[in-house]
Design a protein that fits this description.
Number of domains: 1
CATH architecture: Alpha/alpha barrel
Bound molecules: glycine
Structural class: mainly alpha
CATH topology: Glycosyltransferase
Number of helices: 13
Number of strands: 8
Radius of gyration: 19 Å
Shape: globular
Order of helices and strands: HEHHHHHEEEHHEEHHHHEEH
Mean pLDDT: 97
Low-confidence stretches: none
Oligomer: single chain
Helix content: 40-55%
Length: about 375
């Protein structure tokens, strides 16, 4: 894949998206048009994240102008009834924190730190995990949180307060102990007794079953653990990231684009999740950047294989759809957002392309 000829095409697509998406908060594209979804929803940071990456790559102020208000709009949800939860990292890292890192904006810093405080406040001391979701699910932890740990690790460095790092590492250690199986596959949800922290059961969640391997969850896990290693340099997180990545690569040896779950029943064998693919590609480059040169090829080549397959078979770079990637799977067990464009799939596709163009700054 020749990135120097591909990148301008991607940039042109994002320019088209700016015109078409306007002030919408895009989440799902079902028939060529993105919806306009709730700002407190976990996906609201991804479109501005695409814009911040474009800004960082080009320094064209068109992108920062369109991205600028998002952290303030998302923050405003804190002042009303909202459903913010474990995924605030997905919302504030690609908006507030990215803005602060790229422009020095003090409000971005403040909002990022406020979100980190909120996330740290979800820590369950008895079970050493960040609780998932809200409502009655007091003892639930989920693999998606792995990607949100970067918010705590950033805050720890930003204000030199190791409490945030302690909470992130404690949660990551719980992931190592309870989520990642010996074969490198990963559970989606683990339920703990919220008072004692004792393990109760694992649940299928967005995966096929409690014993299955939801492909986006595998990608969240190894990308997330690679991030934790980048911040902490504790070898066990890199080892875990590699183990899960190896499982993912084995499952995608024939076709680099994963099924929505690697252990589904026969009937589902054609259903892909391109968002798992793009997140995995970004995570594989992360691992490649963290291991010695002779090891890095394996991960970088697989990321390239994924990007080539996505670009040839699933990417729409013309005006015919607002989203970039077709055939994302949001939540198959709930039959929600199946075979659609997903803004997080698009985000990680752009992020991976930037990384392949040697972009060295990081959002997660
Ligand atoms: N964080 C929810 C998901 O991956 O679908």
């Amino acid at each position: 894949m020749d990135m120097t000829t591909f990148w301008p095409l991607l940039q042109k697509k994002v320019d088209t998206m700016i015109e078409r998406i306007g002030s919408k908060s895009p989440h799902v594209d079902k028939e060529g048009v993105y919806d306009d979804f709730r700002l407190d929803w976990w996906t609201s940071g991804f479109w501005p994240g695409i814009l911040w990456i474009m800004y960082d790559m080009t320094k064209d102020e068109k992108y920062s102008r369109h991205a600028w208000e998002w952290d303030s709009k998302i923050e405003a949800c804190f002042l009303q009834e909202n459903n913010f939860h474990h995924d605030v990292g997905f919302q504030f890292l690609p908006t507030a924190v990215a803005k602060y890192r790229m422009t020095g904006d003090k409000d971005g810093r403040r909002r990022g730190l406020q979100a980190a405080n909120f996330l740290a406040g979800r820590f369950n001391l008895a079970g050493r995990f960040l609780r998932a979701w809200n409502q009655e699910k007091h003892g639930w932890a989920i693999i998606d949180s792995s990607m949100n740990l970067s918010l705590l690790l950033w805050a720890a460095e930003e204000i030199a307060d190791s409490r945030f790092k302690q909470a992130a590492m404690a949660h990551a250690d719980t992931v190592l102990e309870y989520f990642i199986r010996n074969d490198g596959s990963v559970r989606h949800i683990v339920s703990f007794d919220p008072d004692t922290g004792a393990f109760l059961e694992s649940l299928g969640g967005q995966g096929y079953s409690p014993t299955s391997a939801w492909s986006r969850g595998q990608a969240w896990a190894f990308h997330g653990m690679a991030n934790v290693y980048r911040y902490t340099r504790e070898q066990r997180y890199l080892d875990a990231a590699k183990r899960v990545a190896h499982y993912f690569m084995a499952q995608t040896a024939v076709d680099p684009i994963p099924l929505w779950d690697f252990r589904t029943g026969d009937a589902d064998l054609q259903l892909k999740d391109t968002s798992a693919a793009s997140c995995a590609a970004s995570g594989l480059i992360e691992i490649a950047d963290l291991v010695p040169g002779e090891e890095a090829h394996l991960y970088r080549n697989q990321a390239l294989r994924i990007m080539e397959a996505l670009t040839e078979r699933y990417a729409v770079l013309d005006h015919s759809r607002e989203s970039i990637l077709r055939e994302g799977t949001g939540n198959k067990p709930a039959e929600q957002n199946v075979n659609v464009g997903l803004i997080y799939g698009d985000y990680f596709y752009v992020e991976t392309a930037a990384k392949l163009m040697n972009w060295k700054n990081r959002i997660f």
